[in-house]
């Protein structure tokens, strides 16, 4: 997908959950963060000439810090995120620079998706498509979450899980096979 198509898919996802153009563009911090990420990621991937790459990446880093301060949402330009990404609420969202997130995913406030583990088990998560992560959940370590997974609020996901699962608890366990249907 092109940069414009990705931004449009994020906007449509925010529009789906209510609001209008003015409200989403000017008052929705989750959209600000995803919009800034899309532009930053485009520059990170496409700027190849060294004479342009350094100043552009510096500008991207400054913008990322401004967005972090304004929104409490940290999405580095090197993260890979599929289309239709939705951040529902303000603040406390930290995503590691090496994370991969699939298409059509929703993230709530207070979510951390990061590095964990020791030795060969050290790494970051790979998230499939159609994933919903509830408020204050932590997804950490060298794990893979399949498609259509719901992570309930305040859960700690430190193991890989197949698709169509509802995860809950510390550490998270499968409590249902219904997946994220109805949440995305």
Give your account of this protein's structure.
Keywords: Acyltransferase, Membrane, Transferase, Transmembrane, Transmembrane helix. GO terms for molecular function: serine O-acetyltransferase activity. This is Serine acetyltransferase. It comes from Flavobacterium procerum. InterPro entries: LbH_SAT (IPR045304), Ser_O-AcTrfase (IPR005881), Trimer_LpxA-like_sf (IPR011004). This protein is an alpha/beta fold and 184 residues long. The chain folds into two domains: 1-74, no CATH class; 92-184, UDP N-Acetylglucosamine Acyltransferase, domain 1, CATH 2.160.10.10. Helices cover 33% and strands 21% of the residues. It has four helices and 15 strands. It has helices at 3-16, 21-27, 29-46, 50-71; strands at residues 73-74, 80-81, 86-87, 93-95, 100-101, 106-107, 112-114, 126-127, 132-133, 138-140, 144-145, 149-151, 156-157, 165-168, 173-176. Strands 3-6-9-12-14-15 form a six-stranded mixed sheet. Helix 1 runs antiparallel to helix 3 (29-46) and helix 3 runs antiparallel to helix 4. The longest helix has 22 residues, at 50-71. The radius of gyration is 16 Å and the shape is globular. The two termini are 21 Å apart. The model has no long low-confidence stretch (mean pLDDT 94).
């Amino acid at each position: 997908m092109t940069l414009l198509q990705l931004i449009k898919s994020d906007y449509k996802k925010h529009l789906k959950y209510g609001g209008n153009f003015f409200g989403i563009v000017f008052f929705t911090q989750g959209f600000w963060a995803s919009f800034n990420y899309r532009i930053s990621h485009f520059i990170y991937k496409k700027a190849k000439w060294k004479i342009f790459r350094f100043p552009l990446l510096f500008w991207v880093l400054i913008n990322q810090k401004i967005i972090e301060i304004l929104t409490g949402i940290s999405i580095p330009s090197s993260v890979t995120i599929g289309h239709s990404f939705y951040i529902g609420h303000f603040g406390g969202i930290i995503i590691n620079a090496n994370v991969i997130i699939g298409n059509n995913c929703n993230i709530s406030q207070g979510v951390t998706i990061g590095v964990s583990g020791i030795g060969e088990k050290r790494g970051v998560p790979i998230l499939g498509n159609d994933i919903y992560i509830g408020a204050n959940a932590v997804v950490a370590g060298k794990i893979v979450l399949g498609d259509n997974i719901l992570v309930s609020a305040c859960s700690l996901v430190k193991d890989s899980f197949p698709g169509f699962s509802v995860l809950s608890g510390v550490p998270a366990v499968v409590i249902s096979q219904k997946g994220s249907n109805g949440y995305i």
